Amino acid sequence: MIYEFRTYDLKPHMQPEFEKRFGEAYEKRKQFSPLAAFWHTEIGPLNQVIHVWPYKDLAERDRIRAEAVKAGVWPPKTSELIARQRSEIFIPFAFSPEMKPGKQGPFFEMRTYTYGAGQLGNLTKAWELAIPNRLKAGPATAILYSELGGLNQFVHIWPYKTLDDRWALRNKLREEGIWPPSVVAKKAGLPEYHLVNQENKICMPSAFSPLQ
Questions:
Q1: Cβ-count burial of 91 within 10 angstroms (0-12 exposed, 13-18 middle, 19+ buried)?
Q2: d(CA 180, CA 184)
């Protein structure tokens, strides 16, 4: 399973119109394959939308996209609303939940970390150790690492009912010493993993997003 994250920076004030056109076009596009999620940013980089598409592999992605274009139902007519686009392919870690339709949010924190070259193995071991206790405290939406696009990146997405819930849970986990994974790994004597950059943003789902 792969996930294509398509991140579009929109021109100011264009988000409502973009989502309207995208949602209308998606009604026909989804007969070829469904979205996993569609979010817009609430905190962090503004005027940004992220749509996530699951595929079996790159060959299926290419085939489905070609079929949708040939049928004339895709892409949506939104080009004049967009300032910048990027596409990245992510692979879920073995301990990542599958992104399934349902209600989790409505607030989703998307944290994107860039790790040093050659650090994926150490990072994976640390997360494998820490994630069971973290998931007992609250679910994850997805935990993935990059294959194409920005390299040496991993993304972890966490749902919350309110932003106050986020703050309270993060403080509780730190006080108990079961999060973040770097702290847990150090206690266990595992090799450290080195990060070179960290970003986060709070996103909310559109009305047509399968994941709410």
A1: middle
A2: 7
Assign 2 to helix, strand or coil: strand
pLDDT, tens digit, 9 for 90 and up, residues 155-182:
999 999 999 999 999 999 999 999 999 9
In the predicted model, residues of the chain with pLDDT beneath 50 are none
Q: What is the DSSP-derived secondary structure letter of residue 31?
A: T
| Whole-number Cα distances in Å, 109 to 8, 23, 46, 165, 170 | 17, 23, 14, 12, 12
Give the residue among 93, 105, 209, 63 at the shortest CA–CA distance from 156. Answer: 93
Tally the C-alpha atoms within 13 A of residue 203's C-alpha that lie toward its C-beta: 30
As given in the structure block, the two tokens for residue 109 are: 């924190």
Residue-wise pLDDT for 76-101, tens only, equals: 999 999 999 999 999 999 999 999 99
CB of 126 within 8 A of CB of 193?
yes
**Greatest extent of the chain over all pairs of C-alpha atoms, in Å:** 56
Q: How far apart are CA 164 and CA 167, in angstroms?
A: 5
**Beta strand pairing call for 82-92 and 153-160:** unpaired
Strands (DSSP E) along 64-194, which ranges? Answer: 82-92, 107-115, 142-148, 153-160
| Neighbour-count burial of 30, counting CB atoms closer than 10 A to its CB (0-12 exposed, 13-18 middle, 19+ buried) | middle
Say what the pTM is. Answer: 0.95
Indicate the SS3 state at residue 61: helix
By residue count, the chain amounts to 212
For 95, which DSSP code?
T
Reduced to 3 states (helix: H, G, I; strand: E, B; else coil), residue 151 is coil
